Amino acid sequence: MDFQPSEQIRQAGLANVGSLFRSRVDAAPERLAITDLQQSLTYADLNQRVNRLANYLSGVGIRHGDRVALLARNCIAYLEVELACAKIGAIVAAQNWRLADRELSHCLNLVTPKIIIHDAALAASLDRLELVTDRRLALGAPYEAALATACDGEPEVIIDDEDGLIILYTSGTTGLPKGALISHRAMVARSFAYSMDLGVPAQNNFVAWPPLFHMVSTDHALSTLMRGGQVIVVDGFQAGPLITCLERFEMHWFIVIPGMIEAFLAALKDADPVIKGVAMIGAMADLVPPQQLAAITTALNAPYLNSFGATETGLPPATGNVIAIGERPSQLSKQQSGGCEIRLVDGDDNEVASGMPGELTMRGPTLFSGYWRAEQTNAEDFRGGWFHLGDVFRRNADGSLDFVDRVKYMIKSGGENIYPAEIEQVLLADLRVADCAVIRQSDPRWGEVPIAVVARQDADLTADDLMQLCAARLSSYKRPRAIIFIDQGAFPRSTSGKIQRHELEARLNTD
């Protein structure tokens, strides 16, 4: 090789979350950076607090690569912790405060944190656990006192773009959560994808209301602060504050997720707000009944984002399409995201032909850096230099992609492969169905058979009605063997609104 860049040249090309946030501070120190609808901080004010926290953490022994566990509800301090750790090279392990003791203990001890920063109200949860660290810092008065003791100078730490930034936990169908390590490189690339795929203006307002321990809020809140916009922090789904945000702030993308749409529609009808302006709404359209898609897009006068991303990948691999206002789609074909490569492969990792189902594999700069302390899983999921998502798609002749289902949800019945999502799409097309999930049930003859669990929109809907619908639209082996009706609120859901089929299976099989 004739030319080898020097270490100084390499360092000049690095980009990390802390330095890109600092560049926005220098460019517009008095611009509003963050608010919780009660108090607001400019970029200069936020940076001063971030630096004080970064220097406090360094002063108590937190070093490059150390983990800082964060157990808190959505608040301004949450993003202060993430930015402070970004500036000193520490890794935030973002904990789900809704977890049972056993799961929370696993998630904390998995990453061996040097300190736990937590809501004071969640101290009792920590007291019940056997943890590898005793050092804690409670938000509120202790947190503010810690900041007051530290200087506000910029930390002098060189951060490599492959250094870890944050660990977000992914829930599996079996076992305990895995910790996905997201690097500075991946988070910066996700910020670029945010702009490229969604066309988000640089100085945009973003409402971070889903839990900040989830990628949809953390990714896009940090992206907003790296790009000079304002983050509005709301603690979870609260219809009143969210309607206030829609009335006060113009925004390019407003998050709407499955499980909250029906209640939000009712609140919007009662409030009849004058909405400032939203360019698009939504996420995970596959999990939303078509009639709800039509209703919420009409109510907010904005198309619904037909997204497909993951904690491990960010917005890619297939977030590039929207559903028109008022549309009740019968098909949800997606467009491949920019900035990534994808392949659809069979069980032997051979690429499948167009029109054939195959597992989606991806590579690109938004990808995470593997699961924490999970070498065997990483070797399997990154085999061949591609990340295997575990999601089955078909590529259409026009290049668009149709989601089929998760590999792990596939039902093997008498030698045939049945994808529950295909059955769910047929059931959700009936306006009398509010929501549904198809699960597996063991069968002495066929091994496994599909069972449909349905919430009714119309109390007169019967199992025979749905069986006839399935008979008209599905091959005989794909038809559910039984229809079970439950209340819509009885569906177990993840923090992102997804129905947790494994919990539903376990509950109904136990019953």
Verbal overview:
The protein folds into three domains: 7-236, ANL, N-terminal domain (Rossmann fold), CATH 3.40.50; 341-406, Luciferase, domain 3 (Roll); 413-510, GMP Synthetase, Chain A, domain 3 (2-Layer Sandwich), CATH 3.30.300. 33% of the residues lie in helices and 23% in strands. It contains 16 helices and 25 strands. The radius of gyration is 23 Å and the shape is globular. The N and C termini lie far apart (67 Å).
pLDDT averaged over residues: 92
Query: What is the number of domains?
Result: 3
The separation of the N and C termini measures 67 Å
The dominant shape is globular
Contiguous uncertain segments of 5+ residues:
none
CATH class of the largest domain: Alpha Beta
What is the overall number of helices?
16
Oligomer: single chain
Key words describing this protein structure:
single chain, 511 residues, alpha/beta, Rossmann fold, Luciferase, domain 3, GMP Synthetase, Chain A, domain 3, 6-stranded mixed sheet, 4-stranded mixed sheet, 33% helix, globular
Topology at a glance:
Elements: H1 7-12, H2 17-27, E1 32-35, E2 40-42, H3 43-59, E3 67-71, H4 76-88, E4 91-94, H5 101-110, E5 115-118, H6 123-127, E6 136-138, H7 141-149, E7 164-170, E8 178-183, H8 184-198, E9 205-208, H9 215-226, E10 230-233, H10 239-248, E11 251-254, H11 261-271, E12 278-281, H12 290-300, E13 304-305, E14 309-310, E15 314-317, E16 322-323, E17 341-345, E18 358-363, H13 375-381, E19 387-395, E20 401-406, E21 411-413, E22 416-418, H14 420-428, E23 433-443, E24 447-456, H15 463-473, E25 483-485, H16 501-510
Parallel strand pairs: 1-10, 3-4, 3-5, 4-7, 5-6, 9-10, 11-12, 24-25
Antiparallel strand pairs: 1-2, 7-8, 13-16, 14-15, 17-18, 18-19, 19-20, 21-22, 23-24
